[in-house]
Design a protein that fits this description.
464 residues, alpha/beta, 4-stranded mixed β-sheet, 18 helices, 9% strand, binds zinc ion
Length: 464
Amino acid sequence: MNRRALCIHGHFYQPSREDPFTGLIPNECGAEPYANWNEKINANCYLPNARLGNFEKISFDLGPTLTGWMQANAVETLELIKSSEQTHRSQWQADNAIAQPFHHTILPLASRQDKVTQVRWGIADFMHTFGIMPQGMWLPETAVDLETLSVLAENNIQFTILAPWQSDEEVDVSQPYRVDLENGKSISVLFYHSGLSTCISFDAGSTINADSFIQTCLKDAFSDNEKDQLLLLASDGELYGHHQPFRDKFLNYLLNGALHQAEIEYTTPGRWLRDHPPVKSIHIRERTSWSCDEGVQRWRGECGCTPHSSWKKPLRHFMDAVAEVVDEQYLRGTQFCLLDPWQARDDYIQVLLGDQSYSEWEADHTGRKISQQESQKLHQLMAAQVERQRMYTSCGWFFEDFDRIEPRNNIRYAAHALMLTEKACGLDLIPQVRPLLRMIYSTRSSLTAENEFNYTVRRLTETC
Ligand SMILES: [Zn+2]
């Protein structure tokens, strides 16, 4: 008899919210009675789902910037999630957690070098949290191009999850596919069921009761053919309890009773792919995503989803210009000591995670003993590289208006990257990029990127 299986994938993620001046999250409007959104969402989604054991039976990715916050601020939640992953792994000999690129960067818009760094930092964070190499990786906004998939495969990632319209040809979403890549490599792709995923995300009425969800939505989505079928439902994890109250309980009953009664098994991609390796290959549609009808336009200009956002294109230009300036100085400034500056950057994640001390990292990557002054300069250049990665956080381009915390934070991180580089190299770099800020402003408020940038520079000058 053919198998009918369901996999729920939750993308659990929050961007960096820390103020670069203090390293702390400022109090955030709208999160009351909590101090900030992370705390609020932990209270109504992450922790209740963890306490109910839901992380044991779903597939999930936990964004590194969220994991880092949990380590310091939501220890119970993180420990419960880790123990759920372990229980799943010992029961099924496959993981149900998958990794995520570190700063939620739109990888098709990033350079190859940045893709590599984001993917390696994401893998390192996963290994730090779960103690194992990830099998799969969730791509931010499922944004994909062939180069991104190649970087995943080169780093031993076996699968990812995409939206069905990201395939170049029609697919049967109940079956896994393979994408053939350069150098004889390939990667497996599971496509989520878009109708059902939309339904659970946006039709609150459909998820009031798990039994009726199965009868009225899920059952009809399986076809009558003789093949084993997996339906994968992907959404933001925050759906379960935060975007929609009580859905943590819906999820719990779905996985612990309702599915079983309907003779549908629950599974996860790692388990399913072990028994069902892809037999067909497909080509992907380059530079597409799950949350914009115009590919990855949402993160670089105006699109149908955010039509009045003329600030996005110049913001992308500005960030690319900052990256160029910072990288040029990074290469020039580390020439004297680093054996391989890009490998050194990729490995710097061990310092960020606290798995290696700065001096150990330095000894590993410099070809000779360097002076204290040189060491200080190197340290500043590495800190600039971290900020330069963080300034590309996709949330900065997601919404229509510029006057929001996410784009403001990206501007602040960019300013910080420039200031650290200036300090390290003793050069005046800001004038090179400042004119690019003029086209970036809110049409709803008086906020301009230039003001935000100048304010940041002023504050950093006072505090550093
Ligand atoms: Zn769009």
